[in-house]
Amino acid sequence: MATSTRLGNAVVVGAGMAGLTAARALADRFDSVTVVDRDRLPDAAVPRRGASQGAHGHVLLAAGERALEELFPGLHDELLQAGATQFDPGLDLRMYRYGAAFNPAPSTLRLLSQTRPLLELTVRRRVVAMPGVTFLTETAVSALEGADGRVAGVRLDDGTVLPADLTVDCTGRGSRSDRWLAALGMPAPESVEVRVGVGYATRILRRRPGDVEGAQALFVLPAPPEEKGIGVALPIEGERWLVGVGGWHGEFPPADEAAFIEHARRLPHPMIADLLDRAEPISGVVGFQYPANRRRRFERLRRVPAGYVASGDSICSFNPIYGQGMTCAALEALALGRVLDRHGDTSAAMTRDFYRAAARVLSTPWRFATGGDFAYPETAGRRPLGIDLVNWYVRQIQLAAQVSADVQEAFLAVQHLVSPPWILWTPVMMGKVLRAARRPRPTS
């Protein structure tokens, strides 16, 4: 519940999913919220320059969908009406890894599949309509304003100063927070990188009934370290498929039609290539490259400024193959609201409390992403202690999930951040995993 005391003015820098969800949380708690973005924000579900991955596949984890529904009640139904597809990831997602397909098994989870531009547009329209919220588009922020340990607003490129009791940096992976804070004599956080050299290419196909028998989405994953290629097909609005192929450490195609098809044919299962053979392409091929996971450890700072927090990719940007970024941004927005309610101010103590809450949000996704990436010896970065043993057991979990509905349900719940990781490490579950991992598995 929002605090009954309004906290003044807030500025959110960045109008992506992190900025929009943060603005929604702040709108209940501040007299005014100004969202600043460099882009001209389109009034249609089309990719925009500032969202570099907008043309590619995006998946909201179940926890992210629940967080968005809490922030924007009725959003789920609104997206369905706009053409999104709902599916059960245990039953309707055909997934292949480690030489076998996962047996379809009903789960308690339901996911929505749509393009990132449709999701962002739908959320942005909700935020724009909120009392007290203003958008400044085609406007860049050049610096933070402040002194004596408090950020007091932002300076725009034209020299205009926007005063703020709270500034939220949602400018993403390229955030200039280190430089901005240093200019005010405030410490910048330690930055941790795990280099993965990921890339992928995407194109849109026309979707017709019967394109894929018995499934609504496709996912082909590699068996590391020997295999590096990945492929995905997601149903999106407008009766279309979004198909992406790529991989780790340079194992991805250029934005070229022939290379795109050839990469799909080299994947360890032909389901993506088969779909490309039967469905009509209606777009060109668009490429994207992502060099490294990056996390700024704000929660470790001994001294943090009042009146300023970073959120979303400005704190942590993950290997996008794992589909965790938007979910974490939404969960951080909810955490920001709770922390503001608890403190009732924008003090340094509130900032520190928020970063601790954000670190709890990021803990499991960061371990998932970097742990999976360290399955490849080429991955560079600080290697977690015991990661080889953890990755061995995670592989056993996935082998077991291919044949055991119980293990699959538990694995999906942890993967989608609705259950804590420890449920996979109890003695009872470990026994189920190790027994099921030795059972014969489907090969189709």
What this model shows, in words?
The protein contains 12 helices and 19 strands. It is of the alpha/beta class. Among the domains are: 9-58 and 117-190 and 297-370, FAD/NAD(P)-binding domain, CATH 3.50.50; 194-291, D-Amino Acid Oxidase, Chain A, domain 2. Strands 4, 5, 12, 13, 14, 15, 16, 18 and 19 form a 9-stranded mixed beta sheet that branches. A 5-stranded parallel beta sheet has the order 7-2-1-11-17. A 3-stranded antiparallel beta sheet has the order 8-9-10. A hairpin with a 3-residue loop joins strand 14 (229-236) and strand 15. Helix 10 packs across helix 11 and helix 10 (387-401) crosses helix 12 (427-436). The protein starts with 8 loop residues before the first strand and ends in an 8-residue tail after the last helix. The model has no long low-confidence stretch (mean pLDDT 95).
- CATH architecture label name of the domain at 9-58 and 117-190 and 297-370: 3-Layer(bba) Sandwich
The fraction of residues assigned to DSSP E strands is 15-25%
Radius of gyration: 22 Å
**Would you tell me the structural class of the helices and strands?**
alpha/beta
Categorize the overall geometry.
globular
Outline the biggest β-sheet.
9 strands, mixed
Query: Which oligomeric state applies?
Result: single chain
Q: What count of helical segments does DSSP give?
A: 12
Mean pLDDT: 95
Q: Kindly state the number of beta strands.
A: 19
What is the CATH fold-level name of the domain at 9-58 and 117-190 and 297-370? FAD/NAD(P)-binding domain
Terminal Cα span: 50 Å
CATH homologous superfamily classification of the domain at 9-58 and 117-190 and 297-370: FAD/NAD(P)-binding domain
Identify the CATH class of the domain at 9-58 and 117-190 and 297-370.
Alpha Beta
Low-pLDDT parts are none
Give the helix level as a range of percent.
25-40%
